[in-house]
Design goal:
About 55% of the residues lie in helices and about 5% in strands. By secondary structure, it is mainly α. A hairpin with an 8-residue loop joins strand 1 and strand 2.
């Protein structure tokens, strides 16, 4: 049986910045990612301690967003 190392597990669940998410979902700007988050299309958490949001996006949220996008295109 093959087991995963803690590093492999952590890599799968490392929270991404909006600029990293931008590359993965294929949009043109970080502001577009922030807009997707604000509009509820892309799930994220705000890790800021101030009034200016600082978003982090999970790999699962990216996968969910891409699956939903594909589903909408094929309908």
């Amino acid at each position: 049986m093959r087991t995963r190392t803690p590093e492999q597990h952590e890599a799968d669940y490392r929270w991404l910045t909006p600029s990293e998410a931008m590359d993965l979902i294929g949009v043109d700007s970080v502001e577009m990612v922030r807009e997707l988050i604000r509009d509820g299309h892309l799930k994220a958490i705000d890790v800021s301690r101030s009034t200016v949001p600082r978003y982090k996006v999970s790999p699962d949220a990216i996968a969910e967003f891409l699956a939903e996008s594909r589903r909408r295109v094929t309908e």
